[in-house]
Amino acid sequence: MNRISRFISELRPGDAVIAGALTGITLIACFVGLAALVRSYQVTIPAHGGTLTEGVVGSPRYVNPLLAFSDSDRDLAALTYSGLMGHGTGGKLIPVLAESYTVSSDGTIYTFVLRQNAQFSDGTPVTADDVVYTIQKAQDISLKSPVYSSWSNIRAEAIDAKTVRFTLPKAYAPFLEDTTLGILPQHIWQSVSDEEFPFAPQNTLPVGAGPFIAKNVSRDSQGTITGYTLDSYSKFVLGEPYLSHIHILVYANQNELQTAYKNGTIKSTYGIATASAVKAPYARVFGVFFNDANNPALSDLNVRKALSLAVDRTKLTQTIFGGYAVPLNGVLPAGSGVPVAPLPSDDTRLEEARSSLTAAGYKYDATANTWSKGGEVLSITLTTSSIPELKVVAMEVQKDWQALGVPVQLELEDSSSLTQTIIRPRAYGALLFGEVIGASPDLFPFWSGSERTNPGLNIANYENKDVDVLLTQARSESDPTKRISLLEQIQEKIAADYPAAFLYTPDFLYNVPSSIYGVTLSQVSNPSDRFWGVQNWYTYTEHVWPIFVPAARTGG
Q1: Distances (CA, A) of 148 to 40, 81, 211
Q2: How far is CA 154 from the centre of its chain?
């Protein structure tokens, strides 16, 4: 050391500076190299922290799983409540508040065991009594819950504090999907009467067992909700969310929302087409459903076939949706797990359509560009909602049918009255409409002969005894492979009858900033499904030694 000191003291000032710089560089290089060596043996994992600011349309009123009617209601309920089951990243059904479940051999009894650490956001344990209370409220017809039909005939009973049993009147394979219903804390709601239930303050500042806690509600001068601040729930059963906060800002309409997104006030939203949007197919089928009770010409299979063949689905999805939709020719949406039915050939579809009308006994008048039979000209009245999307789709279908030689009159109804005045009394000949099939497809309500009249959802007035048998079998089949096979058979048989001109499955578009990782979507039934696996979204990362890597998170 003395030699080094003596050497340094004997250096000229310039040489000493150079030596010092070289020494500094050497030390820095050593530290950098050591850090790189250490880093090479470490792994990168998500870290806690970060905020997401998201915009929605429509002020929420019922942040309550039993009363959530609007998309904004369902969004906030999905973030603040949890069910026995839920969906992990990618949409797979996973236990959430439940630790495990068993199903009886006949598929009619489901028994769930709750997690010991399941707690509501006020620190109260989640018990079987909370589950039973929630289901009994869902079954209360005076409450008019949108989930009433899913639970009306099911018996729920608490076996002990952490075990609950459901008894179904008959086997129903998609039942697990129903158990994603958020659970209410009985100790908070039991003193609220049925009359007060829709107006209780708990509907706007919820206490649930979801991944986030509602910490603050913002209102304007009229008292209308304009935003929510949600904080991560440290005791969420699937692990504390990585994101610390989610801010939900409320806008009156889509134009205001788009402006806020463009100017950066919000960082995420859905329904805006951008190149960076996360895309997933909706679990919805849009088509023109035929009703021969209001137009006897539609009772002829060949007429229905001709109308279906005449529609250029590929052009429709490109022209109207810019490619953000999947052309469809069957009862099941894209992403359902069942192969999409093949589309009519663009090269031959019009020729085949004309041949079908000829086979039905119609004669073509080239001068008038019409088809007639027995002195009656084949014409269609096409009814749909007046919302812009369906209006332009109807106009595109009208062009295709008129190119075939079938005059079409459009009837556009206000969306609020369409259900009451048109759909329920089946007052239409051809109806352009969308059916929400759901994550676990159950086609029975849409295609069973027993569902042809209100309140049934069989809007095509369709009946086929062979299909009815298959629909019943599919409902009770618990083996996924066998169930998909039954759904394929159902799709093939219905397609052969042409009860509708199936058109498309729209894409769900979710705009999230590039700084948010872990967002993956599969098939989406409702916009709130975008929050599946939200506890695994993250902004920040950290480097740790492999031995300190936490166990894999459920639903990750």
Answers
A1: 55, 18, 25
A2: 25
- H or E element at residue 358: helix 349-359
- The pLDDT assigned to 438 comes to 83
Whose CA is closest to 210, among 75, 105, 300, 329? 75
- CA 178, CA 55: separation in Å to the nearest integer? 28
Q: How far apart are CA 482 and CA 167, in angstroms?
A: 24
pLDDT tens figures, 240-275: 999 999 999 999 999 999 999 999 999 999 999 888
Termini Cα distance of the chain:
57
Contacts for 515 with CB less than 8 Å, ≥ 6 apart:
50, 539
d(CA 363, CA 375): 10
Dist. CA 166–CA 177, nearest whole Å: 14
| 295 confidence band (pLDDT: 50, 70, 90) | very high
pLDDT at 555: 60
Copy the structure tokens of residue 398.
Answer: 């009208």
Q: Which amino acid does the sequence have at 38?
A: V
- Structure tokens that stand for 474 in this block: 């599919």
Tell me the pTM: 0.87
Beta pairing partners, 56: 250
Confirm if 53 and 267 have CB atoms less than 8 A apart. Answer: yes
Across the strands, what pairs with 287?
433, 502
Residues 184-234 pLDDT 10s: 999 999 999 999 999 999 999 999 999 999 999 999 999 999 999 999 999
- Report the distance separating Cα 164 and Cα 128, nearest Å: 5
- For tokens 């509501």, name the residue: 120
Looking at 408-554, which runs of residues are DSSP E strands?
A: 408-413, 430-436, 500-511, 540-544
Residue 327 DSSP SS3: strand
Alpha carbon 506 to chain centroid distance? 12
- pLDDT band for 522, please (50, 70, 90 cuts): confident
CA-closest candidate to residue 502, choices 393, 353, 348, 385: 393
DSSP per position, 175-225: HHHHTTSPPP-HHHHTTS-TTTGGG-GGGTS---SSSEEEEEEEE-TT--E
What average pLDDT score do residues 144-173 get?
95
The DSSP-derived string for 264-326 is: TS-SBEES---TT-EEEEBSEEEEEEE-TTT-GGGGSHHHHHHHHHH--HHHHHHHHHTT-EE
How far is the C-alpha of 458 from the C-alpha of 129, rounded, in Å? 37
Tell me the residue type at 436: V
Residue 454: the pLDDT is 85
DSSP 103-137: E-TTS-EEEEEE-TT-B-TTSPBP-HHHHHHHHHH
DSSP 11-28: S-HHHHHHHHHHHHHHHH
